[in-house]
Amino acid sequence: MLFLQLASLAVLLSGSDNADVIQEHILFHVIQISSFANQSWAKIQGSGWLGELQTHGWDSESGTIIFLHTWSKSNFSNEEFMGLELLFRVYLIRLIQEIQDCASQLQFEYPFELQVTAGCELPSRNTTKSFLQVAYQGTDFLSFQNMSWVPSPEGEIRAQRVCDLINQYEGIKETVSKLIRNVCPRFALGLFDAGKMYLQRQVKPEAWLSGSPILGSSQLLLVCHVSGFYPKPIWVMWMRGEREQPGIQRGDVLPNVDGTWYLRVILNVEAEEAAGLFCQVRHSSLGDQDIILYWGKTSPFRELDPTGSDSTSNTSDGPCIMV
Ligand SMILES: *[C@@H]1O[C@H](CO)[C@@H](O)[C@H](O)[C@H]1NC(C)=O
Ligand SMILES: *[C@@H]1O[C@H](CO)[C@@H](O)[C@H](O)[C@H]1NC(C)=O
Ligand SMILES: *[C@@H]1O[C@H](CO)[C@@H](O)[C@H](O)[C@H]1NC(C)=O
Ligand SMILES: *[C@@H]1O[C@H](CO)[C@@H](O)[C@H](O)[C@H]1NC(C)=O
Ligand SMILES: *[C@@H]1O[C@H](CO)[C@@H](O)[C@H](O)[C@H]1NC(C)=O
């Protein structure tokens, strides 16, 4: 009997262990941008983000949350969302009213923009960092810290005045604190669990090469394009044999509309040295089957012929994209 109890205890323990092994870094935040054109006109945009992936939008006409994925509701009930929508709606209406009423007193000059970002970060399952920051005209203005509004140095006296004003409202501070410290971590964890399949998917990249002569020189600009991959980490290199080529320029990894990523890696090279160079792509979705594309093999050199004399070229590379 004791043995059985121990065994089931062990199962329970190992179960919770497994959950803890997945020490994900989870960041959920909402962004709210309010643009004030004049005393009577303001526009609100809202969105929710799990890491770099947008999960929610805000329909300011109807004052409702837009769920961008089937799993965007996390594990919250419809009642809970209706409560949140009502809260956001009231908050936004009040915010716009108060700001328009106080704009001249606070020396906000039309047109201006306020950006609010708020959320929580769970570096592991039992720690949470919550935050709320406000920017005015793109510059730090104030933040919420430990139950009070704190002006940013960049906000100067104006931010101090706003903080003095809103620090008087205990109810708002309690609501904000509850949202970022309690609701946010629960929501973020549930969202992460609900979206796990989507977040852990593997999508293979496509790669292609393009090149163009650099005007006024004997050099070529070779570009290795890699697109449509997920997740974001990727290794792309211009190689000759075993050697990584020095002097490559790696672009930023940019988002595609479908949630996958795009990257290009550029190499300047003397035209006569281009043959034998190849672009190598390594990505988790490919296993150990790296993509290898040789310059000049599948993209014939004649593509670079400025007279474009050969129109019968048939390459699997697609068109030569000038950069
Ligand atoms: C306020 O700004 C909006 C949007 O730019 C404009 O259409 C409207 O005419 C402006 N109203 C006033 C009173 O200036
Ligand atoms: C997380 O919880 C475990 C066990 O409860 C504890 O040992 C550990 O120190 C906690 N980690 C942090 C960062 O608080
Ligand atoms: C937050 O405020 C409480 C009470 O006002 C105080 O005891 C605590 O030390 C503060 N924490 C930080 C990190 O400032
Ligand atoms: C949702 O999931 C989170 C994390 O697993 C949990 O803490 C929370 O209690 C769940 N339910 C609700 C309604 O938040
Ligand atoms: C290009 O080559 C492929 C395979 O060799 C062939 O299937 C395709 O029909 C060709 N396209 C053109 C436009 O010649």
Automatic annotation (TrEMBL):
GO cellular component, as recorded: endosome membrane; external side of plasma membrane; extracellular space
Among InterPro entries, the record links this protein to: Ig-like_dom (IPR007110), Ig-like_dom_sf (IPR036179), Ig-like_fold (IPR013783), Ig_C1-set (IPR003597), MHC_class-I_related (IPR050208), MHC_I-like_Ag-recog (IPR011161), MHC_I-like_Ag-recog_sf (IPR037055), MHC_I/II-like_Ag-recog (IPR011162)
Renumbered residue ranges of the record's region Disordered = 304-323
Q: Which residues belong to the signal peptide in this entry? A: 1-18
Q: Name one Pfam family in it.
A: MHC_I_3
**Where is composition skewed (Low complexity) in this entry?**
306-323
Q: What region holds the Ig-like domain?
A: 185-285
Q: Name one GO biological process term.
A: antigen processing and presentation, endogenous lipid antigen via MHC class Ib
Q: Which membrane topology term applies here? A: Single-pass type I membrane protein
Which GO MF terms does the UniProt record name? Answer: endogenous lipid antigen binding; exogenous lipid antigen binding; lipopeptide binding
* Alphabetical UniProt keywords: Endosome, Glycoprotein, Immunity, Immunoglobulin domain, Membrane, Signal
Q: What is this protein called?
A: Ig-like domain-containing protein
Source species of the chain: Diceros bicornis minor (South-central black rhinoceros)
Organism lineage reads as: Eukaryota, Metazoa, Chordata, Craniata, Vertebrata
